[in-house]
Specification:
By secondary structure, this protein is α/β, with parallel strands linked by helices. It is 36% helix and 21% strand. The chain has an eight-stranded mixed barrel.
Length: 232
């Protein structure tokens, strides 16, 4: 009985240690000094001044999804994050069930054009999508139909958010753009370069109640400033 109790206690300690390590995981601060988050209305009301004080330099904000969905927190997050001195960018969740041109029109109707904004980003993944799996040529055609008007309006090449599954499926069809790689708790492999690494999906940040996605930029503050100002 005592042995069983000790095993239970030991198991609980191991589980708690593993959870603490997961929750507190951060890439090396000296190697990746530029930290960021990405949010949507799911994070609720955000105190952006507290976020800015918690080692957060940039934020990607969900703006739109598909051809007609618009994130109800976007306008407030865009305004308040900028007021707090955080570099902001907008992202669009790309669906396989609406033409790329329709999705571009939705994004352009919502997101302000600002010279100091981060490059517009497009979220490319299977999770939460509409169930279709287009062939590579079709995916590329509709993605190009989204990118062309968005990049023309904002004057910056877009950032492509890709999950490992999407990258495996469409690596050869992706246009030459900077990548935002999802790779939880481990540095993305070298098979595809990246500018932004989403390394955590349950992070804790001051000013946000509940978990949030955490990211790092690939280089230092000078390189970040160059990338932020990049134009086509």
């Amino acid at each position: 009985m005592i042995r069983l109790l000790l095993l239970v206690v030991f198991g609980a300690i191991v589980a708690l240690a593993a959870w603490w390590w997961f929750r507190e995981y951060r890439p090396d601060r000296d190697r990746y000094p530029i930290r960021g988050i990405d949010v949507s209305h799911h994070q609720g009301s955000i105190d952006w001044s507290k976020v800015a004080g918690d080692d957060v330099a940039f934020a990607y904000l969900k703006a739109t999804e598909g051809g007609d969905h618009r994130d109800r927190a976007f306008a407030r997050n865009w305004r308040e994050a900028r007021d707090a001195g955080i570099a902001v960018g907008a992202y669009h969740f790309f669906t396989f069930c609406r033409p790329g041109a329709d999705q571009a029109a939705n994004f352009l109707a919502v997101v302000p054009v600002a010279a100091d904004a981060l490059p517009p980003a497009v979220d490319l993944e299977f999770g939460g999508n509409c169930g279709r799996t287009p062939d590579g040529a079709t995916m590329r055609r509709e993605l190009d139909a989204f990118l062309a008007p968005v990049e023309r309006a904002h004057g910056k090449p877009a950032l492509l958010y890709v999950t490992p599954e999407f990258l495996d499926a469409y690596r050869k069809q992706l246009p030459a753009r900077a990548l935002w790689r999802r790779s939880i708790l481990r540095k993305p492999d070298g098979a595809a370069s990246w500018h932004v690494w989403q390394y955590h999906n349950r992070g804790i940040v001051d000013g946000i109640a509940g978990p949030v996605d955490l990211n790092v930029f690939v280089d230092d503050a000078d390189a970040f400033a160059v990338w932020r100002a990049l134009t086509e």
